[in-house]
Structure formats: C-alpha cells, structure tokens
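Hi R.,

Quick one: here's the Glycerate kinase sequence you asked about.
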Amino acid sequence: MGGAAVRVLIAPDSFKGTYRAAEVADAVADGAESAGLETIRMPVADGGDGTLEVLTGPLGLELTEIDSVNPWRAPCSGSFGLGEDGTAVVELATFSGITTPHKGFRDPMTADTYGTGLAMAEAVRRGATHVVVAAGGSATTDGGLGAIAAVVDAGGLGTATVTVLTDVTTRYTDAARVFGPQKGADETTVERLTRRLEDAAVTLPRDPREVDGTGAAGGFAGGMWAQFGADLRSGADFVLDALGFDAALAGADLVVVGEGRLDGQSRSGKIVSAILARVHAAPVVAVVGSVGDDLGDYRDRFAEIMVATDRDALRAAGARLARLG
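And here's the predicted structure, written out as tokens:
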C-alpha cells in the first residue's frame, strides 16, 4: 500500500443498542476520507438484527409493514422486505424477538414464533417465491412450532422455498440449554423446554436432532428444515455474498471490521470471523465498542484494534487508518 490511492473497505456490523451498521460505516469513512483515503462503505450483518436493513438496497427490497403478533400473541406490527425477483427477507427478531415490545410478563415457556410465521405467509401471499428468515435475536424456544402453525393456518407457503440464516451450529434439542437462560429460562424451565423440543423432534416430518444449526432461534431453524425443507445457511456468508463483498475486496488495500464487542465469541459464526476467512492479503483493522478479556490469540488476526464508543471516536479511528497506508 502507499500514497493517496489507498482504498479502504469499511464493513462493520452494528454496535448493538448504540449505532446501526450504516452509522458506524459512515463515521469511520468520514474520518478516513478526511485523511485522504478512498473508501468503500459496506455495512454488514450476520443474520440477526440489522440484516433486513443492510440487504434492502443491494437486493432491491421494498419494505412492507404488516400487522402480526409478538412472542406472546399480543398484536404488533413490523416490516419485511420484498424484491421484484420474488425474494422476501423477514427478520425473526421483529416479530418474535427478545426485544419485541410486550407489556406483560415475558414468559420464556409460552413465547412462540407464530408472528414470524404470519409474516412468512404474508410475504408469500404478496408474491414471494423465496423467503429468507434472519433468525437471530429470538425470545422463543418453541422449536418453530408456532411459525409452522401460523403458516398452516394461513394456507401454507405454496411452492415458495425457505432459507434460514443463522450464526450458530447448535442442534435442535440443545437450544434450550444453550440459549434458554439468556431468554429468561431458569433451570427447571430449561428442562421443560428441552423435553418439549425432544417431543417435537419426533413428530415433525423430518427429525432435526442430528443436523447442525437446527437449534438456531430456539429450534425455529430446525422446525423450518423439518417442515418446509428450509436451507440453513450462515447468515454472515449469505450477507457478504449478497453485498458483493468479494468483488469489493479485490480492489481494497485495507479492510475495516467492527462490532459492539470483540471477544472470544467473535470467532464462531459471527460476521468478523466470516470476513477474516475471506481476506488473505489486505490487513484487517477492527474498530469496536469494547474488547473482551477472552480475546486471546484472536487479537493476532488484526493489524490493529481500535476502541471507539461514539461518533467522534469512530471518525478519529477512520482518520488513524492513514497511518497504515
């Protein structure tokens, strides 16, 4: 690298609860451009919150707001995206998420994915032939049974295909043990949820228990795989492919990744690890909100790690990239 021709590919995830991926990319790019660098802004996501937003432009999606229900069947509204090619993108977190608004008790035992199933069926009713569900951030451990019921109640999916985006390899009947506690399930509830998943596994058209990734979103992924033949894909890789990451990388001298917290979990299925797997020559800089104590030798994968907790710090981090040029 060298001189003013240095081109930086800026591909951050959101800083959850603080900044959207596009806001991070814009702030870092503004700082980099002020230092004379060329930038490619490419906000990314890993199949969880923010996936619909980053795919809307690249996939030519039109946002459609619908009425649905939240994880406890209370009325809620939300949007999905639908493209002219028949691709629909639904974020499970919008309708069945751990942050979906609810005025009552957020019971992990009764939470279900019925609202997401309603959104899937509505997308098909409006012309979708391929429904992509970003499965991150669920409040549910219903094995996808709620969504299946909603789709059946709405008349089915016809010939539409389903893809579920996930960033985990957890299997169906492990979902409660692995993810239940973060959804409010105590030890007894985890046991009850696990028994329910075991019962569901043997009643579905296909048994999802030995398939990696079927435990995503409390088994939603496995329910979709078993009932509708859903394709289970890495959310990070799906997004990078849709955004044309590899083509942009070919013209980049430096790559910037980012997320709210860089830690040991970043190694497994997250967008940062997916990007690192694709970058073979250009240095990679991480601009993050915080760094975990368990980062270990993963730190060696980066030319530099910069911590930035507000927009001014993000812009300053972008400007400091010139030192690497």
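The chain has twelve helices and eleven strands.

Cheers,
M.
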